[in-house]
Amino acid sequence: MKPELQKVRRKLDNAALVFPAATGKKDSRVFRIYCKLGEPVEPEILQKALERILQRYPMFQSVLKRGGFWFYLEKKNIQSVVKEEENAPCSPIYKKRQETLLFEISYRGKRINLEIFHVLTDGTGAIHFLSELVAAYLDLKYGMEEQEYQKISEKEQEEDSFSRYYTSANRPKQVRKSTLAYQIGGNRLQQADMRITECVVSARQLLEKVREKGVSITIYMTAVLLLVIAAGMKAEEKKRPVVIMVPVNLRKYFDSNSMSNFFGWMEIEYYFKPDTTFEQVLAHVKKRFAEELTKEQVALRMNRLIDIEKNPMLRMFPLELKNLGLRIGSWMGSRNVTAIFSNLGTVTMPEIYRQFIDRFGVMTSTDKLQICACSYYDRFYFSITTKYAETKVQERLLAFLRQEGIQVREMQHGMRQNKKEEEKS
């Protein structure tokens, strides 16, 4: 019998505050990170591996609870049980007024899926958890010696790094203001339905292309997304910019081992003209990344967000009023964004596991259009999730990459994954 976990309340980090208020039937605020192995998953071994890893990361044993003024997290002795995948990817996990864990582990064929309600952690924390789960599974299955990993204390895991690095010192006024962005038109899917396209390209081939152009993969893919969205705009719609939101991992700028959310974002905009070329868009995106990704600018954006949380008047409002304000703020903010591109970077595993792993993948629920990407050795993976029924943007994006000489292997799942097709992928 497991020892009773101490019922310690933990406040939500700054990035997590909006998720309980903004989640709903149209957007579950759930993301999935998965690992595809070389052989079918054995659920009994996976369950044992999960139990081992939860010993290291007790923060994952948390439930979301409502207080009088804020939501908070509390640890609970609820067993997480591995199950065969049966729901659509990124289906709701958080159930209002129910004490349920905020993550799920499932499997199908050769895949191990980790799905997380974004309140619990971000992509960096999720990859950390999944990579150790996969390692534990392979250790148990093949009788390998358990690898040494960086030990992160429970205090470090749960640290609110936003509060740690927040400063209210005098700051310059915000120079660049958000503006209403172009919104992709067309028929929207109903309620929880979501169209999913998964793609894999050669990381080596992609790197050769971006190095040839003197940019990073993230800059290149952001510019491509801007261009292919703009290709569907009418002339009168070009008075508004296409704006791509790009999440930023704050751990790259501030020393932190936190497994809680610790990310910010930047907005990359472009006003298109009839004769705009890809090279012009790429040069603009490169310049904007250089402007936005300085430690000073990253800190400025982070501190401005925390200013709102720490506002004395706002702190006095009851939870329901805060939720209403957060929902309105989330809706207003969404009007300044056309789509989102999130690159989680390279997933690293000890070399001993390489022969057993095919690739990693990531996707997220969205109320717009979002691309999520990651790489593992020569597999650069990206998913396109969208609430739009039409597939013109996806088609133009894949056509552009192929025109650039980048071979793309596409796996189209529609709104529900096709199990037969999944086995092939």
Summarize the structure.
By secondary structure, the chain is α+β, with helices and mostly antiparallel strands. Helix content is 33%, strand content 23%. It has a 7-stranded mixed sheet with strand order 10-9-11-13-14-8-15. Strands 5-6-7-2-12 form a 5-stranded mixed sheet, covered by helices on one side. Strands 1-4-3 form a 3-stranded antiparallel sheet, with no helix packed on it.
What are the key terms here?
425 residues, alpha+beta, seven-stranded mixed sheet, 13 helices, disordered C terminus
Give a verbal description of the structure.
With 425 residues, the chain is an alpha+beta fold. The protein has helices spanning 18-22, 43-56, 123-142, 154-157, 161-165, 203-213, 217-230, 278-292, 295-309, 312-316, 319-334, 392-403, 419-424, and strands at 9-11, 30-37, 62-66, 71-75, 83-84, 103-108, 111-117, 195-202, 242-249, 263-270, 339-346, 357-364, 369-376, 379-386, 408-414. It contains 13 helices and 15 strands. Strand 13 and strand 14 (379-386) form a beta hairpin. Helix 2 packs across helix 3 (123-142). It starts with 8 loop residues before the first strand and ends with a helix.
List the helices and strands and how they pair.
Layout: E1 9-11, H1 18-22, E2 30-37, H2 43-56, E3 62-66, E4 71-75, E5 83-84, E6 103-108, E7 111-117, H3 123-142, H4 154-157, H5 161-165, E8 195-202, H6 203-213, H7 217-230, E9 242-249, E10 263-270, H8 278-292, H9 295-309, H10 312-316, H11 319-334, E11 339-346, E12 357-364, E13 369-376, E14 379-386, H12 392-403, E15 408-414, H13 419-424
